[in-house]
Structures are given as structure tokens and as C-alpha cells.
Amino acid sequence: MDYQNRAGSKFGGGGVASTSATNADRRERLRKLALETIDLDKDPYFFKNHVGSFECRLCLTVHQNDGSYLAHTQGRKHQTNLARRAAKEQKEGKQNDIVPGMLAGVQVKKNVVKIGRPGYRITKIRDPVTRQNGLLFQFQFPEITTGVRPRLRFMSAFEQQVEEPDTSYQYLVVAGEPYETVAVKLQAQEIDKREGKFWDWFDEDSKEYWVQLLFKTERDARFSAVPGLSSGRK
């Protein structure tokens, strides 16, 4: 760092560095160190999105430039996630059955090139009988891999790492290769998963994936937590 040219310091003397200046110097040193040891073209978690920002697919973080991404890779969060991913892959590799004709102990990793996000449409709905509010999702997967059916799951605010956790929300995650996985932010209200209330369907001809969900009313949510009462009463 250039201490002598800092405002308020004498020539040849070292002024006291501010916190922001110290952090900037640390990030620059980490960037230079990372450039010497990391080839971004071979980094499986490095991704440049359509707006020119850089994303870490492992930690689900967004960075404005490659220097910020490189500094992130040297941080505790990225290193911890790398260790977790390695432990998970090692565990799954030991539990996988051996495929005839393949070497034992060799784990095959799929390398799928993502082609973008699927199109979607969201419609607000209401059950005419129970007056429950809900949503109807329509996802378009025109180039989905043959034989692959889209999958979905619900994710809590603490599982995602894109934004600060907020217990007021939950996420509906939909995946279908070779498209990128997408997530829809929903209110953290209990989903009614009774038959006819929550369903999903994939149209093989039009390549459209439909998902319907209804939220439980306050009365249903209250009684579903009472011991001895069925949460699936109609």
C-alpha cells in the first residue's frame, strides 16, 4: 500500500490506514494470489450471466467482476462449501452401486451445459369452495432432455444463499436439464398438500410443466397442529 501519499501524512512517513483502505488492499492481494493459482476457464463453479456479472454456482453468490469472484473463492464461505461438496460426493460415491463394465470406485459426474432459464407464467387462483388462495405455475421446457421430467421441491429461507434469510418467505425450486434451476419466492404460509389441492403435471407433447398449490387457511393451519385432529379433513 502507498502510505506516504495518503492525505495528512508527511513525505516518507506512514499514515494510519483506514478500514476501507485496508480491506481494499487485502482484496487486491487475494485477487493477485488467486490469479496465480486458479484458472477460471477450468473452474466448474464460475459462471458469467447474461448481464455481465459473475456467479458462483457453489455458493449462489453474484460478483461484479472477476477480482471479486476470485477473492470470494479464497474466503471461508467458499472453502467451507467446497469441503462439504467433497465430503458429500465421497459419501455418495461409496454408496452408489457398481455398474457392470465400469471400474469400482470411479464416480461419473455429469457435465451438462446449461442453455438458460425456462419460460414461465404465474396465475393467482382461489378455490371456489374453501376460498383458499393459491398459485398456478406454467413452465416451458421446449428443449428439455429426452426422457427427463422436471422436478420440484420447497426450500426454506435458510437453505438458499442468494439473499439474507427472511422467515416470511419460502421458495419453490424447479429443475429440468439442460435448463438452469429456477426458484419462485413465496410467502411462508403452509401449503395444502391434500389430493386435488397440490399437484404437478408435465405435458410431454407441449413440453409444459404445470404446478398448482393452495395455501392453507388460518383455520386449517391452526387445527392441523392440534393433536388428535386430522390435518387432511375436508
From TrEMBL:
Q: Where is this region: Disordered?
A: 1-24
Nucleus: present as a keyword of the record? yes
Superkingdom, taxonomy of origin: Eukaryota
Q: Which organism is it from?
A: Sporormia fimetaria CBS 119925
Name of this protein = Splicing factor 3a subunit 2
Annotated family: Belongs to the SF3A2 family.
Q: Which GO terms describe its biological process?
A: spliceosomal complex assembly
GO function term, MF aspect, one: zinc ion binding
